[in-house]
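Q: What does the assembly look like in three dimensions?
Context provided by user:
Components: two
Sequences:
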Amino acid sequence: GAGVSQSPRYKVAKRGQDVALRCDPISGHVSLFWYQQALGQGPEFLTYFQNEAQLDKSGLPSDRFFAERPEGSVSTLKIQRTQQEDSAVYLCASSLMRATNTEAFFGQGTRLTVV
Amino acid sequence: AQTVTQSQPEMSVQEAETVTLSCTYDTSESNYYLFWYKQPPSRQMILVIRQEAYKQQNATENRFSVNFQKAAKSFSLKISDSQLGDTAMYFCAFSLDSNYQLIWGAGTKLIIKP
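A: Here is the predicted structure of the complete assembly.
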């Protein structure tokens, strides 16, 4: 596609519900990143994929968060048993090369609200 | 650990004026990259400008330029001839040459008034 696509754009979940957030990166981009952006704050790193390999998941806040990219293209961020503190915008970015010193292209994010 | 600080939560200027957004960072590394991103209400992060730490020359992109002071660990963004479309959140970000993740400041809300 022309850009990074994320779906859904908005998600309201009841506390305790499981959610799945999808990211379609730019075709051919090797690197894929997930960030969490709380209201009024800058994004915080969650996890990084190089093709299908998850090379860094140090930013995942708990074992309720799980990300995958099984075929090296589309990625899914899953949050189990959602809590109110999970409410945030989840941003996905992809880049052609391995490191972020080349341009990372961002999607429009998924705004998750846990009620 | 690396940190990025943006000390101006909000700024407001008249259209066509020049505005400077501040950013300081902390790192013990000598090689790294610095970025300014723009985030409009659509939430999509858009790269404005990028600076490699090993380059002494300040980066410029049309109306956008940076003042990179490596010794002071300062990386400010200057927007000349500001336009209404520049209204957005602006984030300063940092990445290590050998690392993947971006480390972000808290952002500055920039409002351009007609």
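Follow-up: The longest strand of chain A covers residues 88-95.
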